[in-house]
Amino acid sequence: MIIDKIVNIKGHSRNIKHYISRGYDISVGCFIDVDPLDLTSGSTFRISVGCDNCGVVKNTQFREYFNRTSGLKNDYFCKLCKGLSIKRT
To answer: What percent of the chain stands above pLDDT 90?
Structure first.
């Protein structure tokens, strides 16, 4: 689960179209607050996440969280609880 409610990002020419399509008013070089779920799948912004099994909080890149949850479809497990995820599947 994502702990952070907002992430402060800087508009860049590579991501500006994505955030405009999500309804944000952004321009290159401006900082805005966005919902972590609106980040791009390859975003390197760091977010706080909690293990859905034991609750351990970790600071990780969004793209790592996105990949480990299969595109935000599955639960997030820390390294210690990852075995439970393997048993479920």
So the answer is: 57
Structure tokens at 7: 């992430």
Span 9-45, pLDDT tens digits = 998 888 889 999 999 999 999 999 999 999 999 999 9
pTM of structure: 0.82
Alpha-carbon distance of 6 to 53, in angstroms, equals: 23
Structural element, H or E, at residue 41: none
DSSP conformation class of 1: -
Nearest to 58 by CA among 18, 5, 10, 4: 4
Hey, what amino acid is at 10? K
